[in-house]
Specification:
Order of helices and strands: EEEEEHH
Helix content: 40-55%
Protein name: Gliding motility-associated protein GldC
InterPro entries: Motility-assoc_prot_GldC (IPR019854)
Pfam families: GldC-like
Length: 112
């Protein structure tokens, strides 16, 4: 059986606020990659529920954080289709993401 590992490293300031997030993966080559935010969701088979880790660095701009959240929701639509073939649920998620993206576009243009 082939195994793959993903490792995250979080540098914290003296108040335990993330200053830097880096990651590496055995399938991504030897390079260390940097991120401003991570969102990890794990389905716990024992608890039958989701465990989440959401972290972002203090230099993550709020507009990018909002886009990050909408992008995450959009990727959930793809997961729903590939994992369950529920096209209708994916369609509803995509519609909400489109609405939120338009809202963010308006915010960025100073219209809301």
């Amino acid at each position: 059986m082939k195994k793959s590992e993903i490792r995250f490293s979080i540098a914290l300031d003296d108040k335990k606020v993330p200053e830097a997030i880096s990651w590496s993966a055995t399938d991504a080559g030897p390079d260390i990659h940097f991120a401003k935010a991570i969102n990890i969701a794990v389905w716990d088979r024992e608890q039958v529920g989701t465990m989440k880790i959401d972290l972002w660095t203090k230099d993550m701009p709020t507009d990018e954080m909002k886009r990050f959240c909408v992008d995450n929701m959009g990727s959930m639509a793809e997961n729903i289709v590939s994992a369950t073939n529920d096209v209708e649920m994916a369609k509803k998620i995509r519609a909400l993401c489109k609405e939120l993206s338009e809202y963010l576009d308006q915010q960025e243009q100073g219209l809301s």
